[in-house]
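Q: Structure tokens for this one, please.
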Amino acid sequence: MLRSAAAIVLTGFLALAAGPAPALAEKRATFPERSFEAGDVPLGGVIEHVFEVRNEGDEPLLITEVHATCGCTILDYTATPIPPGGTGKIQFKIETKTLASGKHSKTITVMTDAPGAERTVLQMKLNVVTALEFLPRSQVYMYTVKGEPKIEKVLLRPHVEGLKVLGVSSSNPNLKVSLEPSKVTTAASGAVRGALTERPGDYWITVELGPGTPVGTFKAEVALKTSDPKAVVGAELRVVATVKEPGGAKPGNPS
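A: Here is the predicted structure, written as tokens:
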């Protein structure tokens, strides 16, 4: 009995002397930001943002790979091990010259050697805008029958401060176009026409098929004259109009 008790006391003493077992070393990746809103970006511009990855573990962390979703994305990232408590960088660039106008969401996938964070998706959102924007779209489809006029209106919005539109012209004499500056003077008093809200500095383009337009399908490009000739690059309003004999079947949108 005494021998057993002495053995127990000795075992406990040795355990206390040894202390608690050391924690296993680990690497832990955290991303303070996973999505970035770039806002409006002019067509042709380059938007850049740097995401961070932090090593909150106690072993060096390595970014092993970064994959992009499209060819418009240019990447650079920290290729050396990130020490405990350190921060790595992932540089995310997007060239907009090949993008259509409108909203875009581009993502990259970051690969690390940290357990539980091997794959992390980072996102950049942007709205590509041209110097001049046609609303609701840059194509107009028109249909009428011979002898009946047809009018369509398109809202033209400059996105460059101080840019003025001086005139418009049609490449087809059967399609007449005219320009009317918006009468709105303050954003708060924006009037609504055709479900589109005018803003100060906007213009209305009117496209008209007169009653004397012959039967047929007509295509036209509307050219713009502005206070800055460079601003019309990439801005083009296209019109397709069909005139039928009375009593004919109404076609779908011509292509």
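A few notes: The two ends are 101 Å apart (CA to CA). Helices lie at 2-18.
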